[in-house]
Amino acid sequence: MRIVLVDPSRTAAKFVSRLLEARDYDVRVFADGCEALAYIKSDTDVGALITTAEPLSISGLELCWETRLIATSQRPIYVIMMSSNNDDDQLSAALDHGADDFLSKPPAPKELYARLRAAERFGTMQRELIRLATTDSLTGMFNRRAFFEKAKALSERAEAGELLCAVMVDIDHFKLINDVHGHEVGDHAICAVAQALMVERALVGRIGGEEFAVLLDGRGLADALGIAERRRLKIEEMQIDAGGKTVSLTCSFGVSEWRPDDSIDRLLKRADMALYEAKIGGRNRVVAADNSLLAPINSGSSSRIRVDRKSA
């Protein structure tokens, strides 16, 4: 675990850092609270802060408070206040300002290690809760909520001028797979498609029962269509085990490109409309939302690009 230690006293900081390093903790020592805060903001691997009540530039209570604001639900940071003043007012003030624990200064080694073991348990549990809250339990990919949370950063980059494309994917005739072969085989099909959709530098999420969304950062429409087509072919070639038998499946794809003054919702909506066109056009095909740029890629063996969407 990486720990930020803040103490204006070089002697005290050296004493505590040696105790931490003796147990193989990764320690970053600061005499200045503002410098420590800036480092915590920049380094997402920081798992704990140990600060005295009186850093040089801001008080230890302020540092606790500011660190707690950084420690969102997505980033657990355990905060320990360390003080030679152990009265009840000091303790309550530390806890009210966001500290998770309190240590006497100088800390007894056994007590320090015990507090840090508690910090590690807390971090492990919180990370597991985050995983459960953001991960689709069947496929292991982002769930709908996490997908849209992560998409915010991509939309900000797209607003700044970077390329961004969306791909909506739906398993063809999925109800038939469930009805004929059972839900266990249907689950295997969903997992296989999810694995096939994993693309480097892409945000991928399961946003419905058999529906997936992909955001391709830094890719234009032509690249996105090519990626979608390669995934379509890969899925078309898959064989799902169904109790000694094999089941084939296909997917339909809709692709859209970020436009000026766009939003993630509108981007995905256009991809979803293209997906609908792929469905009514025969399924197992890739359709572009903007027909003036690139038309649907046909699902036939030649994978021709057609200008007239009606013929796809």
How would you characterize the overall build of this protein?
There is one protein chain. With 312 residues, this protein is α/β, with parallel strands linked by helices. It has 2 domains: 2-134, Response regulator (Rossmann fold, 3-Layer(aba) Sandwich); 144-311, Alpha-Beta Plaits (2-Layer Sandwich), CATH 3.30.70. It has 10 helices and 12 strands. It has helices at 10-22, 33-42, 60-70, 88-96, 109-134, 144-159, 174-181, 183-196, 221-236, 264-280, and strands at residues 2-6, 26-30, 46-52, 78-83, 101-104, 164-171, 202-206, 211-217, 240-242, 245-247, 251-257, 286-288. The strands form 3 sheets. It has a 5-stranded parallel sheet, sandwiched between helices. A 5-stranded mixed sheet has the order 7-8-6-11-12, sandwiched between helices. Strands 9-10 form a two-stranded antiparallel ribbon. α2 runs parallel beside α3 and α7 (174-181) crosses α8 (183-196). 36% of the residues are buried. The model is unreliable at 292-312 (pLDDT under 50).
List keywords for this structure.
5-stranded parallel β-sheet, Alpha-Beta Plaits, 312 residues, elongated, 2 domains, 45% helix, 5-stranded mixed β-sheet, 10 helices, alpha/beta, 20% strand, Rossmann fold
List the helices and strands and how they pair.
Layout (H helix, E strand, L loop, with lengths): L1 E5 L3 H13 L3 E5 L2 H10 L3 E7 L7 H11 L7 E6 L4 H9 L4 E4 L4 H26 L9 H16 L4 E8 L2 H8 L1 H14 L5 E5 L4 E7 L3 H16 L3 E3 L2 E3 L3 E7 L6 H17 L5 E3 L24
Parallel strand pairs: 1-2, 1-3, 3-4, 4-5, 11-12
Antiparallel strand pairs: 6-8, 6-11, 7-8, 9-10
